[in-house]
Specification:
The chain is an alpha/beta fold and 252 residues long. The chain has one domain: Ribonuclease Z/Hydroxyacylglutathione hydrolase-like (Metallo-beta-lactamase, Chain A), CATH 3.60.15. Helix content is 33%, strand content 25%. The chain has helices spanning 33-40, 56-59, 62-69, 145-156, 171-181, 186-200, 210-216, 225-230, 238-250; strands at 2-8, 12-19, 24-28, 48-50, 72-76, 88-90, 95-98, 101-107, 116-120, 125-129, 132-133, 136-137, 163-166, 208-209. The strands form three sheets. The chain has a six-stranded mixed sheet, covered by helices on one side. A six-stranded mixed sheet has the order 7-8-9-10-13-14. Strand 2 and strand 3 form a beta hairpin. Helix 5 runs antiparallel to helix 6. It binds zinc ion (ZN) and fe (iii) ion (FE).
Amino acid sequence: MKIEIISCLSDNYSYLIHEEKSNIVSIIDPSEFDACDKVIKKYKKLDNILNTHHHADHVDGNLRLKEKYNSKIFGFVKDKNRIPGIDILLSDNGFYKIGNLVFKVIFVPGHTSGHIAFHFEKEKIVFTGDTLFSLGCGRVFEGTHEQMFNSINKLKNLDPETSLYCGHEYTKKNLEFCLDIDTHNSFLKKKALMINSKLGSHQPTIPTTLEEELKTNIFLRCDDTTIKKALKLENSTDQEIFSKLRDLKDNF
Ligand code: ZN
Ligand code: FE
């Protein structure tokens, strides 16, 4: 399974997946036609388009790519009226094949009411869209904080060795927020060096791993007493901590 990272718009990432054995080409969240097509052209085909959610910056390439390559579009069943050109309706916890690859759909509502993640368990890879970012999480637009907290915890429980591919390059801004609260986290300071060096040479900070995120992403550490103390909310529940962090980040 080969993954190509495609930079789109100002800070979006689309991901091309090439399954070499059966020569099946798929794309996750084609933000825009031109940037994606430049990469797809090398393969001369696009079999599948997979969408994590309905926002324009994740589906804008759908129709033109489908028209050009006769691709099949996969999206969550609940969002069948919002995913342009949808062909295959996906269900929560369902398993689907693209070539020799199998992925599982994980329903992660909060950012939108129909958001899903694509989990390639065997390859230890997850595409999280706008639900879980490196050092952050998505804004809660259509769901509740409780839903988003539960969604993030679903992803938190995957194998720590899982590589995480998210929908945006928000890492630097997220890092600043994490450092603001979790000031003495040595893992975070180490990660900051890596992030600055990558961005300095115009490289994506993605993928990250769940293992790294568990040590550094404040939204995955709502159960940590260090974070609770920093917020002066020692007696709050993990979910209350999440809510507080989400509010603070919205205004950061
Ligand atoms: Zn979005
Ligand atoms: Fe987005």
